[in-house]
Design goal:
The complex is a heterodimer of chains A (about 300) and B (about 300). With about 300 residues, chain A is an all-alpha fold. Chain A is built from 15 helices and 2 strands. In chain A, strands 1-2 form a two-stranded antiparallel ribbon. Chain B has about 300 residues and is an all-alpha fold. Chain B is built from 15 helices and no strands. Chain B is flat and about 75 Å long. The two termini of chain B are about 45 Å apart. The chains are: A mainly alpha (about 300), B mainly alpha (about 300). Chains A and B meet through α1, α2, α4, α5 and α6 of A and α2, α4, α5, α6 and α10 of B.
Chain lengths: ~300, ~300
């Protein structure tokens, strides 16, 4: 108790009143952190060392779940590969496309607010509804997309019916929902001082030079934010692959994303211990990737105060 | 040497040109050319914008077009861009379909998204105020932890929470989906704190000197000032909860309890070939959100500016 009392000793009566009020304001969140975050994280790690089917008490098995994962579960590595494939392609493509779109939407043109509304609209469509529409559009025989592709004379892939084309289909679909990322880039673009770009134009800088030497460096903190959030999101993609491939990840486990694998282990097979181990590994992977990105950020993220001295 | 001499000679050229010719025609001609260029680039911009807008709207438009077709015409060859005649009865049929009780599902979604939105807005408004404007020991550490929790994948906390609510006998109810949200949400606490920090300190200080307690200051002075941010939070939370799928999928089991998204998923699982009806159901699931979007449109764009992405 003395450790908690000591910071209070220095406070005046008014400061104490403020501190008490402050703690009361954040109390609901402290309860939430303890009950819905801290306890579950500890419980997940603990459960990952057990065999637990919910109906019977957990049974301590040590590291066996982790051993099963890496050597005994035939679906683990396909799920890891699928999720990595999805993240590696959908995140960079999404960032480049949403940045390009933000640049387009940042132009001066009449009726721009109408265009912005139209671009954002797909992002409010429920993922389940959007996925069903893409299943219809990507139908191999007579879907809209393949009919158009054949009219141009190109070979039409079987998309969600072909293990080689299902993930590219999913990635194309994910690009439809880049509205939120685009809006964040757009807000970042609008923070760039107009005077800076104008004086660059006067000095004879072309559009490409302005993009490369002014816009991208000033936007790099926003790029970092979007990169981290989108990678964390890509690792957890669930609704879309579930609607397309079900819990088996059809065709041929090509849609078996990591989250779908956790879902079926936890809530179909009720292997709570094993599912917890899978989610602990996901947690570790997300932490690792986030740390690596933040470390690398020192090399490519521009801080305004760095340049002020020169 | 060369660039410098060029640059230094430029003003001289301009000066001689100004003196040499009649002022009107020299000023007029570049202006006309500029205007023509501006018109050309404006046309080019609109062509680009319309092209990209069409590509983004296509799936949305295709959903509505297909919803107006008989089941066997959704995949007709050649492409039927406009159903003739439009089959409006698809909507009627879907609404009356017993496995997709539309009005029941709609009400569930409104109830679910509405209560979660209410709980999040109330709790985050208060908690973020505590973090932003009141000093207490351990505050900054607690806030760092709060931001850190944003990195935790949902599933890590989900499984033990599920076991907890199962032990409490709450499976098959909305309790696990709603109650936790009344205790705050890390992302919106973060966002609201940023917003409180932009408000001037003087107002609250003056009230404090007058003897107002912290709760009156929060309720009567601060809350009215942050109303725009509260609306942004409400619009986003409503949208995200409406589209939430994982939580309802795990916790709910009766069709009569489902929110619309889960009802649509179940409908698709049972009726894989009723494509026209399925598209009508998808349209009906999306329509309320499009309405919310158009009403709260302004707050979407503002919301992004409030999230403070420069951190």
């Amino acid at each position: 108790m003395s450790g908690i009392r000591s910071p209070w000793a220095h406070l005046s009566a008014m400061q104490r009143r403020e501190a008490r009020a402050g703690m009361l304001f954040v109390l609901p969140w402290v309860i939430s952190l303890l009950v819905f975050t801290a306890y579950p994280v500890v419980a997940s790690v603990t459960l990952s060392f057990t065999d637990y089917s919910i109906v019977q008490a957990p049974n301590w098995v040590g590291l066996q779940n982790y051993a099963t994962m890496f050597t005994g579960d035939p679906s683990f590595w396909p799920a890891v590969r699928n999720s990595l494939f999805y993240a590696v392609f959908s995140v960079p493509l999404g960032l480049v496309l949403s940045l390009a779109l933000a640049l387009v939407l940042n132009m001066r043109a009449a009726g721009m607010s109408i265009y912005r509304t139209l671009f954002y609209l797909p992002s409010v469509v429920p993922p389940i509804a959007g996925t069903i529409v893409f299943i219809v559009m990507f139908e191999p025989q007579a879907g809209l997309v393949n009919t158009l592709i054949r009219q141009v004379g190109l070979p039409a892939p079987a998309w969600f019916s072909d293990p080689a084309w299902s993930k590219p289909g999913l990635i194309i679909m994910s690009l439809w929902g880049i509205g939120a990322t685009t809006l964040i880039f757009l807000a970042g673009l609008q923070d760039i001082p107009k005077s800076l770009l104008e004086s660059a134009s006067i000095d004879g800088a072309g559009a490409w030079q302005k993009l490369w030497n002014i816009i991208l460096p000033l936007l790099s903190p926003v790029i970092l934010f979007n990169l981290v959030m989108n990678i964390i999101g890509a690792f957890q993609v669930f609704s879309q692959p579930l609607v397309i491939g079900g819990t088996t990840g059809a065709p041929l486990e090509s849609m078996l994303m990591y989250m779908v694998h956790i879902y079926r282990n936890a809530f179909r097979y009720f292997k709570m211990g094993y599912a917890s181990a899978l989610s602990v590994v996901l947690f570790a992977a997300v932490m690792l990737v986030t740390i690596v990105i933040f470390r690398s950020a020192r090399l490519w993220v521009f801080r305004e105060d760095d340049g002020s001295g020169t | 040497m060369n660039p410098r001499s060029e640059r230094s000679s430029a003003p001289d050229d301009a000066a001689t040109a100004d003196v040499a010719g009649p002022a009107k025609s020299i000023l007029g001609r570049p202006a006309v050319r500029r205007k023509l260029q501006a018109q050309a680039s404006s046309a080019w911009r609109h062509a680009l914008l319309i092209g990209v807008a069409l590509a983004f709207m296509l799936p949305f438009v295709w959903m509505v077009i297909s919803a107006l077709k008989p089941n066997d015409m959704v995949f007709s060859q050649p492409i039927q861009w406009w159903p003739s005649p439009p089959r409006w009865s698809n909507f009627q049929e879907v609404i009356n379909y017993p496995r997709f009780p539309f009005f029941r599902l709609l009400w569930n979604s409104i109830f679910f998204a509405g209560t979660v939105t209410f709980g999040t807005v109330v709790s985050c408004a208060a908690v973020a105020y505590g973090f932003a404007r009141l000093r207490f020991p351990g505050r900054d550490l607690l806030f760092s932890i709060t931001v850190g929790t944003l990195m935790i994948p949902t599933i890590v906390t989900f499984i033990p929470t599920f076991i907890l609510f199962k032990a409490l006998g709450q499976l098959g109810t909305y309790v696990p989906l709603i109650v936790p949200k009344f205790f705050g949400d890390a992302f919106f606490i973060f966002m609201m704190r940023q917003f409180y920090l932009t408000l001037p300190m003087e107002l609250a200080d003056a009230a404090r000197v007058d003897g107002a307690n912290e709760f009156r200051i929060f309720w009567q002075i601060m809350l009215p000032l942050v109303r725009p941010a509260l609306l942004v939070m409400a619009v986003f939370m409503f949208l995200w909860t409406w589209n939430d799928f994982f939580g309802p999928l795990v916790y709910l089991s009766n069709t009569s309890q489902f929110p619309l998204t889960l009802g649509l998923y179940a409908f698709r699982a049972q009726r894989d070939t009723y494509w026209g009806l399925l598209m009508a159901a998808a349209t009906l699931t999306t329509l309320p959100l499009v309405l919310v979007f158009f009403v709260g449109q302004r707050y979407f764009v503002e919301g992004v500016k409030l999230t403070g992405t420069k951190g």
